[in-house]
Protein 1
Amino acid sequence: MTGHENKVYRLKKVLYGLKQAPWAWNRRIECFLLQLDFNKCTTKYGVYVRAIACDLMFVCLYVDDLLDTGSNTTNINEFKRKIMLEFEMINLGLLTYFCGWNLLDITYGMRLISRFMDHLRVPHLLAVKKILRYMKGTLDYGLLFSKHGRSVSNEIYGYYDSDWCGDKSDRKITIVVALSSCEAEYIATLMGACQALWLENLMSKLKIRREEPMKILIDNKSAISLAKSPVAHGRSKTLGQDFTFSET
């Protein structure tokens, strides 16, 4: 500004599009949720939990979209009323689709095919046709989550497998080199154990109590024996200390 070259503007409000905008919005909405007695989940980013007596309420934050659910409809409606008074928001009603989870069964296939969009060939077209036939044949399929958990098993199973460099397209992103199928299966078991612990911590933060431990299932007898009783013999001595985590 002419005549005030030695002065600078002080930004009183973060404008949309600036680098500071996401951070400022996240801090603003987080302070508001904390004032409403929500606790920030340290295991999963963007998840807030509030427990009042036997009533639970969850809020999932994704950029500027909010997903709220809970065990008490009155508390949910009251939360919506308060947040719409604080911010300019629109209630979109009941949840129908969430982050593409309605097509979770074909997510991997679609991602794999999308890698070749700039150079499609006949095998890729045939793969897309298989996905479309699968979608047409499973239109009436779905998952039913009972409101009362007594009729649903509370056990959680994890299935892990590794084919030891059988996928040529993904082989280049392998984080560690396995020298045998036993090592490949054992390392996959380790990754499964890490995911199981993360899920256990997340469920505990969400006030979901479980008595039974998670079960990890693998289909390699050598890897199972190695996990139960690790012995530094010729086939396993190349495994470092990092991969003995699954013993616990």
Note: The radius of gyration is 25 Å.
Protein 2
Amino acid sequence: MIDLRSESPLIQAVFYGNIDEVKSLLNKKIEVNYQSLYGKLRPLHVAAHCSGNFKPVQKEDSQEANSSDENLHETYIQMVKLLCQTGARVNIKDSNQLTPLHYACRSNSHRAVEILLGYSADANARDKNWQTPLHICSMYNAVECARLILPYILNIDASDKQGRSSLAHACFNGNYEMVELLLQNGANSNIHDKHERKPIHWASYMGYTDLINLLVKHGADVNSLDKDLYTPLLAACASGKSEETIKLLIDLESDVTSTTLQDSNIFHLACLNGHDHVVRELLYTHNLSIAQNSKGYHPLHYAASCKRGAFCVELLIGLNYDVNMNSHDKKTPMHLAALHGITSSAQVLFSNGALINVKDSDGNTPLHLAASNGQTSMVEFLVESGANIYM
């Protein structure tokens, strides 16, 4: 936030929406591009920022704001125009390399955007994160602003520092209208970021079924892989945000046998994140089988290591999976629960016959792992349950 007490009268007047004071100061030839003490903001940055749905907090005895709530928005729009008319530099950047156009887009003020573009604002300007005003529109669902900007865009698929396009940001934020607009204007549905993640990965991870359908309609690949070999389906199982998303991706013929770079399949990821509802969806609706991975780890191991995994543990035990199954390094689910201090899962395992004095390939019992990792509550539980402290 700006500390207005130390700022110039012009920036104060702009911030509080006092257009008469702004006019008076400009008539006195005050510097229209005055740089604030904070963030290298100029009056035009402030006006563009306030031109959307922003409403400044007024002091009880403040005389700075002479506009009513009803016309405050119009006042800021007029100030944007006035500042441009009196020589404000429309492409000047603040300390984050944001231009007034970035601010107007973030405030979802299409009228301010229209004015700035009329004064040759650069629609392709980059901030410190290499984001253009179109990226900002996609992040804040400023659809009308984007419509105005698109005719000036040199590359609709321009990427930011993370390699993410405007379409990727729109998908992550669930902005259907924005996604539709970008695709209609030629955005690449299969463009990827630095981690090889595509817009459909983000839509799947966040659970936006409507966006998945829209992306597929425009050629998105449901089996595309990121750098960690996650498909959109694996991403959806990892997040567990929407069972409908998982059902849709399977119906769209996603590969249900795919595994990540760490050799985790859809069940491993769902259990690792404690999504018992996802496990039920995969088991009962799609009749998929559960298996250990190449290291011998079963979804039950993953469920036991998750803070929210107790329900998954109960579900898998109810399906008669062995509570004492070994991975290739001879770790049981109890070893994993002890290692991560998941007492709730350990209690479920123990009540269903899990052994607590069994050793892994390194000779460690669950008690060894709990103690060496500072899991005090787990140590207490294991000792109370009969763990041998002399092994």
Note: Confidence is low (pLDDT under 50) at residues 59-67.
Protein 3
Amino acid sequence: MRLDKLIEEKLETTRKEMKRLFALKQVMIDGTVEFRQNRNVDSLLHRIEVAGEHLETNESYYLLNKPKKAVTAVSDPEKTTVIDLIASADRFQPLYPVGRLDRDTTGLLLITSNGQLGYEMLLPEKKVSKTYQAVVNERVTLADVAAFEKGIVFADGYQCQPANLKILKAEKHQSTVLLTIQEGKFHQVKKMFLAQGKKVIALKRLSMGPLELDEQLAVGEYRSLTLAEMKKLSIYFK
């Protein structure tokens, strides 16, 4: 949660009063004076003290194993969204998916009430790695690996950043690969393989940044992040 919003909410201050607390060095994070009003904080990771008062956050963080057909959106008048998969008892505050997965893509999706975390993780300069397992309709070759490493070029001239492609199984009419990218363009993985004359027939996200898909989660299931996983995300709270 943004630090300025937390102070305004918990201490019921005006915007002017909140800014004055920063100016008077009354805002402390882990014992150190904090001046950044937009800093992302969570009391699971930080000790937050303002004018001598200890403040606590109450954010939600869920790891979802997204199923096919669920759309990555907060709401949709016709289709089931990833938010609809969260039990009503766990939706006591607005939730947002971090990034997006295509409707027919499965796997890891982080859902949280902490909008600032989503913003930080999606900044291009953060270069958050995302790893996918893809099934492709043709044999993937070492030439494809080299092309991905160099940077796939789309038909419109856009050149993707270098990506790591690992072949798990390669047969004449089907291959299974692992692909790690640091971008998030619309339908990017599918377009990258199309540029090589191949088609993705199944796609599953295995990781995003420090988070990995919990294989114990059935498709469509979710759970709260563990403290260990939260600590891994602490790099986005600085």
Note: The chain is about 20% helix and 25% strand.
Protein 4
Amino acid sequence: MSAAKFIQSNYKSILKDPLEGIYVEYASEDNIFEWNIWMEGPTQTPYEGGVFNLRMFFPDDFPSNPPKLVFKSEFWHPNVYPDGKVCISILHPPGEDEMSGELASERWLPTQSVSSILLSVQSMLCDPNMYSPANTDAMVQCRDHNKEYLKRCKEVSLKGRASLPSSIKIPHPDTDRIEHQKQIEKARGYDLKCSMDIDMFDDVGDGEEIIYDDDDEIN
């Protein structure tokens, strides 16, 4: 199965079973290898009340290797690099890493899904890994000057929510059954469309280079 079909399968799965507080869409209809994501800050965390924009970039050998996930909204967290790249074990390539001490079971596995990644990010917001920081300044502030850290998290949360387009409706299937049913109907419509145009993506992921806009490139 090509990378494109795996990506479409993950997308369809999220449409059918949306995640609480997370909205996903293709960044553009002609490039399913890049997703636009809006995520609410979990309750009882410094990010409660916030909404953040992220981009997910899939490699052409997905799911053999994981996608990359980047906060496009301003963000402040020990496990998010200053440029927005998310650093959690599930986004690291398969196999053990002697340098970090991560076990293969903690890193990306081809059997995992996009939903697993997004749930891991929500978990990261609730419980940062202070022992392996991507942003040392955020880690030190969180540890030694927690009041200032919480204030900054609140500031970026308010900025993120203010940037949410009015057209984006973040799903809350845990509390809104009607909304969940609408997502199921949307997924059924996607199934029909997918069956009509999936061939146009079949060759993508079999060695063809994916081109991103300059402002979306990540290292």
Note: The chain is about 35% helix and 15% strand.
